[in-house]
Give the backbone structure.
Amino acid sequence: MGSTPDAVVSARRTPPPSEAVLRWVVPLGSIAAGLLAFGAFVLAIGHDPTEVYSTIYEGGFATAFAWNNTLLRAAPLILAGLAVAIPAQAGLVVIGGEGALALGALCASAAAVPLLPTLGAGALLAGALAGMAGGAAWFALVGVLRAHRGLNETITSLLLSYIAIAVFNHTVEGPLRDPSSLNKPSTLPLPPQSMLGAIPGLDVHWGLAIGVLACAVAQLALSRGTGGFALRVAGGNPRAALLVGLPVGALIVVGCALGGAAAGLAGAIEVIAVHGAASASVLAGYGTLGILVAFMARQQPLAIVPVAILMGGISAAGSLLQRRLELPDATTMVLQGLLFVAILAGEALLPRARR
Amino acid sequence: MDAVTTVLIAVLGGAIRVSTPFLFVSLGECITEKSGRINLGLEGTMVFGAMSAYAIAYHSGSPWLGVLAAAAAGVGFGAVHGLLCSLPRVNDTAVGISLIVLGLGLAFFLGRDYVQPTAPRLPSIPLGSWSENPALRAALQINVLFVIGLALAVVLHWAFRNTRWGLRVRTVGDSADAARALGLPVVRTRVLATALGGCLGGVGGAYLSLYYPGSWNESLSSGQGVMAVALVIFARWSPLGCFRASLIFGGASSIGPALQAVGIQAGYHLWNAAPYVLTLAIMLIGTSTSRATIGAPGELSMTR
């Protein structure tokens, strides 16, 4: 059926909003909707939304102290988000980041501590590389199972994550346990003066800069590099990718391994810059929150940085909410969950994805 | 009694005790996936169900009212998941993860005041009363929900094959196009199946807080809700398979604690990984490069 002249006229009268405008308006509108929903929740439980919001702002972003706290949380979140976003380019939803992060922490500690006397500061590099290798190997396994056995990567990464955490607990409390860590088992610690230092002018370690750099490199590789392009083709249309001769299976394995390396690096940096040793406190849920960060950033590496800072700030505000308004810790989780739901629902309003 | 028997009895008892929440969430996930959707968010549903069951049981004095509250909360979460996934271009895995965060957040937030008080527990049936052996008697203390879950698995197995409702869900799950051609309401069927799945997830949570471990706190669930997705693959999308898979998974999770009880500490954490290693191994056996996962509904995004 052809379009009637009337329809053409009315279509001209109300031109559809351009794609570029929608790409900005919809996510911002979704965030506003999520904030409104949280406000309604706060009101329903008998608190003043403006007071809660101003406390979150104060606890996350108002002072230098708050910013430090926020950026300390954002640093691992950026890398944990990247761990989800890179495999996502190949169309994979890998959610086992917490396990790769645990292995990264373990490998980093196992490599850096014994090498410290001989290598000095080079031991930190060795630790970071070992952590990346551990995470990469773990996620590569997910890719191999996907590419060669057709097993769903979401499920296998989750199973492997539980297994990695069991190995982590076993090693930290067993073979690699520091005999002097009594109540809280941990591996042998790095002496504080040998740990990764702070960025000049900030109280935040260099891991933050490394994460931002990794996102920039990933963004560049995806938009300009052939490898990144091939990864996106393999994700967008595997059959077309095979027809033009792309090694789809290998791309899936490499994409997963790069994601695992990012998660492993997140764990390694937590050890060499924050905790000094691998212990249960390294596993603070960054791997899981990273999934949320990556999806909210719509899997765009550079967008991960501001989203991770936002999520880090909300988490950092938790303790102030607790102290000042006697709200439970989980308040920040409710806000993060509502924002996530709103952003996902907003996808429906966006024009068809480009890829 | 020798150590081997002790361990075996402990594993049997553990399998029955630990498997019940797995049984309910995996049956819920099975119904949802049969309709062509995945609900990873059952973890959040389950923990919220556990909290609401505990709170209502505490206030009303009746654990069964608590189970009812958990079921109702589960229907709510399931319906939200089903409706969100019905929007165009919305990724069901991502929605599931967002509802895990939201469900856990709401449960921890609203449940803060219920960590201390004690709620009445669900009753159990002493099936082992004939035995002289106290360990066996303890192992055969069967909770009523376990029996209900077993009956439900049988009923669902029958219903998927023989009822109009079961055939409708399977048609919608295998081919949305075919279902539309038959005039079946695809979206409504999926939302209802997801809501029903959420309902069972909530009941699974009620078991956690009202029977075993039998209290409410933030570390109540150890990922049972997300594991449901793996268990359903393990069960090849069959309700009776879910029962079998839950028992095996529950038994495997009980090996570590059972060994610890007879004084074997070595590798305690590694034994905790046993159920996951087992699931992975069974998934590996069930697939090959040449064919897709056996028995999977055709519309499932996960196995396509």
Notes: Chain B has one domain: 3-303. The mean pLDDT of chain B is 91.
